[in-house]
Specification:
Layout lengths: L1 E5 L9 E5 L7 E9 L2 H8 L10 E2 L3 E9 L10 E5 L8 E4 L4 E3 L6 H21 L7 E4 L5 H12 L3 E6 L5 H7 L4 E4 L5 H7 L5 E6 L3 H7 L3 E9 L13 H6 L2 E4 L2 H7 L1 H16 L7 E6 L3 H10 L5 E5 L1
Parallel strand pairs: 9-10, 9-12, 10-11, 12-13, 13-14, 15-16
Antiparallel strand pairs: 1-2, 1-4, 3-5, 3-7, 3-16, 5-6, 6-8
Helix pairs in contact: 2-3, 8-9
C-alpha cells in the first residue's frame, strides 16, 4: 500500500516520503477513503509535538473509510462506514486500529466531512463544553479561527448559542472568516486587541477565550477575559510558550486551564464516548459542519503539509488515497 512515511525527524519534511509498505494487521482493517491533516501531524514530522512519535512511522491522526476486515466481537463488519484514528497511521491506503478507536459514520456525512470533523470538533467540545462550561448567551473569543480547531470552535460555539468573536492575525483571512465561520465579529489579534474586544462586548469582555496560538496572543488575551471567565490553552502555534504572573488571574478573577482533548478522553473514556455522541448528534441535526478548504490526492501530501505550514488554509485539508 501507499503511505506517507516518516523515516526520520526533520524541520523541512526531508525525512518524509510517499512509500510502498506492507498492509497493516489489527483488530479492524479499514480502507481509507479520506484523511484530514491536523497541525500535530506537521509537528510530529519535526519531533515538536508533546507526543514524540519515534521514526519510522506512518503519518496521520485521523481518517474515514470502509471496514475491510474485523475481528469477531469487534462490533464492526466489512462494509461499515467508520471514522477514527490514533496518533499515527492515517495517511495510507489502509489502517489497522482497535475497535475502540472507531465510530460508525452518521448517515448524512461523506468521508471527507467526517474526517474533517473528528479531532477538531472533539477538541472544541472538550474545551468549550466539558472544561469551559459554555452556556447559551455567553461570549467566546476564538483565536486561530481560520485553522481547523479554531473554525470548529467557532462553529460549535455558535451552534450552542454563544456570541462568537473570531480572531486572526492575517487581514486576508477576515472576509473568508466572516463568510465561513459566520461569527458576530472578526478582529485582528495583533497588537492591543483588547480595545476591540471591549468595544464589541460593551466592556463586559469574554466568558471564554479559546487560544491555540500562545505567545503574544496569550499575553493580550489575559486582558480580554471577564471576571469568572476562563482562558483555555489549546496549543502554541506561535512557537512561544507564554508565562503568566499568578496575580493577574487572581486580581481579575479568571482561570487559565490547559486542554488536552485526547488525553481527557483517554482518562475518562465514558466522557469521551459521550462527547463523540454529542458531536455526531449535532452533525446529524445539521447544526455543525466542518469546512474543507481543499481535497487533495494522497500523492500530493507535500502540497498539503506546506500549505498548512504557510498558514494559507481556512478549515481543513483532506487527503484521499
Amino acid at each position: 500500500m501507499k503511505a506517507v512515511f516518516v523515516s526520520k525527524l526533520s524541520p523541512d519534511l526531508s525525512g518524509v516520503e510517499l512509500a510502498e509498505l506492507e498492509q497493516p494487521e489489527g483488530e479492524v482493517l479499514v480502507r481509507v477513503r479520506a484523511a484530514s491533516l491536523n497541525y500535530p501531524d506537521l509537528l510530529m514530522t519535526r519531533g515538536e509535538y508533546q507526543f514524540k512519535a519515534e521514526p519510522p512511522f506512518v503519518s496521520g491522526l485521523e481518517m474515514a473509510g470502509e471496514v475491510v476486515e474485523a475481528a469477531e466481537g469487534s462490533g464492526f463488519k466489512p462494509g461499515d462506514r467508520v471514522r477514527g484514528g490514533a496518533k499515527t497511521g492515517a495517511f495510507a491506503d489502509y489502517v489497522a486500529l482497535p475497535a475502540a478507536s472507531l465510530r460508525k459514520l452518521p448517515e448524512n456525512l461523506d468521508f471527507a466531512t467526517a474526517t474533517a470533523m473528528g479531532a477538531a470538533y472533539h477538541t472544541a467540545y472538550v474545551a468549550l463544553v466539558e472544561i469551559g462550561g459554555l452556556k447559551a448567551g455567553q461570549t467566546v473569543l476564538v483565536h486561530g479561527a481560520s485553522g481547523g480547531v479554531g473554525l470548529a470552535a467557532c462553529d460549535l460555539a455558535r451552534a450552542l448559542g454563544a456570541t462568537v468573536i473570531a480572531a486572526t492575525h492575517r487581514e486576508d483571512k477576515v472576509e473568508p472568516l466572516r463568510r465561513i465561520a459566520r461569527p458576530e465579529a472578526v478582529i485582528l489579534n495583533t497588537g492591543r486587541f483588547r480595545e476591540d474586544v471591549s468595544e464589541l462586548t460593551d466592556v463586559k469582555l469574554c466568558d471564554l477565550v479559546y487560544d491555540p496560538i500562545g505567545g503574544d496572543v496569550f499575553d493580550e488575551s489575559t486582558r480580554c477575559v471577564a471576571f469568572g471567565g476562563k482562558l483555555l490553552v489549546i496549543g502554541f502555534v506561535s512557537g512561544r510558550i507564554p508565562e503568566i504572573a499568578v496575580n493577574i488571574p487572581l486580581i481579575k478573577g479568571f482561570s487559565v486551564v490547559g486542554v488536552r482533548a485526547g488525553e481527557y478522553s483517554r482518562r475518562f473514556p465514558d466522557r469521551g464516548a459521550r462527547i463523540a455522541e454529542a458531536v455526531d448528534r449535532l452533525a446529524a441535526e445539521g447544526r455543525i459542519r466542518p469546512h474543507v478548504d481543499r481535497t487533495l490526492p494522497l500523492t500530493d501530501w507535500r502540497e498539503a503539509f506546506e500549505a498548512m505550514q504557510r498558514g494559507e488554509i481556512v478549515g481543513k485539508i483532506v487527503l484521499e488515497p
